[in-house]
């Protein structure tokens, strides 16, 4: 599966700072110290509807991670999946009378268009669950053969009790886990499971649903968590720098994935940091496909909204915060974009070297994009009011905003 084209990232004078970021597993801020190649895995979409603002906010957060790393003169090895076969996708296809593969391909293509318009840097490897199945089956067999998985009516489940570190990502108690498991795709009430929290690794073929050759597992399709584990281990290996996604993925998805990988390899941890973006609401409730309260990037673009303004609307909230999308949020972003473009359109301006360092410091401090925007606001306000004589300043500000915030002025 192919990703989307990359926009050029301008080089800035000097060098960026190492990223200090909130780690869900430890509950505190840690300084990431990747090698020459920083490794990041971000969980992708289930393509039965394209990019809503909650998706966009999450991918914007991890785009900033990449940009901070690139500014430190590192390379970035970014991997993202597409869950192109799963219950919600199949259910939507049946509801709408569509072929599920056509639905997945169409919505994935629209997602690529949205990411391109928003100037999100693409992953090096963009992998669909279906194409990953040949690598998933042997992992499930290994877990089963090692006694870490068991069969139940043809399905194969992972035993969470085989990982001594289980629970160390989300740090939730058993009751909270059980409740979230039921809400987020698990089946804690199924009779016969060793532990209610045990997640499915391989679902035996169901009538009327797609299935694939599972070798000794029999025909079926993979569970959600093992999909990401197989892709991450194949392309990044254990101990990569950041596992990212929305805060609703901390449990069960990232918790279970970490356990799968740690039992498979005997190594710990799966990722050095677990980083989670907050939820975006509309009309007082979290945006979700099940509720239908969605604002789509593609719809805004179709209505003539500048993608740079959409990106500024996302950047105006700290990535870990839960916030609400409103017309005013977008209006403020449009107004800010106009002020910034007016400021950099002058032939010369106020010196901007200090601004570059302010933006760098803000983003290195747990991706504090609102502080970075405020720094550019201050420069633009003075520039629009007073002007200056530094011929290189407007260009330097434009390159800084592009390189570090992904906004083209």
Give your account of this protein's structure.
The protein starts with 19 loop residues before the first strand and ends with a helix. The model has no long low-confidence stretch (mean pLDDT 96). Helices cover 43% and strands 15% of the residues. The protein folds into 2 domains: 20-286, 3-Layer(aba) Sandwich (Rossmann fold); 297-405, Four Helix Bundle (Hemerythrin (Met), subunit A), CATH 1.20.120. The longest helix is centred in the N-terminal third of the chain and has 19 residues, at 53-71. The protein is an alpha/beta fold and 409 residues long. A hairpin with a 4-residue loop joins strand 1 and strand 2. Helix 10 crosses helix 12 (369-385). The chain has a 5-stranded parallel sheet, sandwiched between helices. The protein contains 13 helices and 14 strands.
Summarize the structure.
The chain folds into two domains: 267 residues, HUPs (Rossmann fold), CATH 3.40.50; 109 residues, Four Helix Bundle (Hemerythrin (Met), subunit A), CATH 1.20.120.640. 43% of the residues lie in helices and 15% in strands.
Give the tags.
Rossmann fold, 4-stranded antiparallel beta sheet, 5-stranded parallel beta sheet, Four Helix Bundle (Hemerythrin (Met), subunit A), alpha/beta, 2 domains, 14 strands, 409 residues
